[in-house]
Specification:
Layout lengths: L5 E6 L2 H11 L2 E10 L2 E8 L7 E6 L2 H7 L8 E6 L3 H10 L3 E2 L4 E3 L2 E7 L5 E7 L1
Parallel strand pairs: 1-4, 5-9
Antiparallel strand pairs: 2-3, 3-4, 6-8, 7-8, 8-9
């Protein structure tokens, strides 16, 4: 069965995005290849998930793409980061400067808190039950 390998996330700058996703969220840098003309193929993936869906960090080019940085999902939570240890990862991310928009909630489906990436895209940190 086919799988979703990558999801594109439009960013302002490759290096600041790499730093946020690797340092603050604990992702791994999978690939950073120069494509010429200032373009790079940059892929990050949650640490310890060698075969999961990765993010292709694509530097914005042009007015339309620059306007979409941080608003790719219209203000809704558009990305879901699953964890096996919510308390550990919430504490680590908070210490790394990740901005959570709410206190952790414990719902029927699991523990969750909404956070923003460095551009304002909304994510759920979620430990499913």
């Amino acid at each position: 069965m086919p799988t979703i390998a990558l999801v594109t996330l439009v960013v302002r700058d490759y290096d600041e995005a790499i730093a946020f996703y690797t340092d603050a969220l604990g992702f791994e840098l999978v690939e950073d290849t120069d494509r010429g003309g200032g373009s790079r193929w940059v892929v990050v993936r949650p640490g310890g998930a060698p075969h999961g869906t990765g993010l292709l960090l694509a530097r914005a080019a042009g007015e339309t793409q620059h306007a979409s940085v941080g608003a790719q999902t219209g203000g809704r939570v558009g990305f879901f980061l699953h964890t096996e240890d919510f308390a550990r990862d919430h504490a680590r991310m908070t210490a790394a400067g990740v901005r959570f928009l709410e206190e952790p909630r414990h719902e029927a489906y699991g523990s969750v808190a909404v956070f923003e990436d460095l551009y304002g895209n909304r994510w759920d940190l979620l430990q499913p039950k």
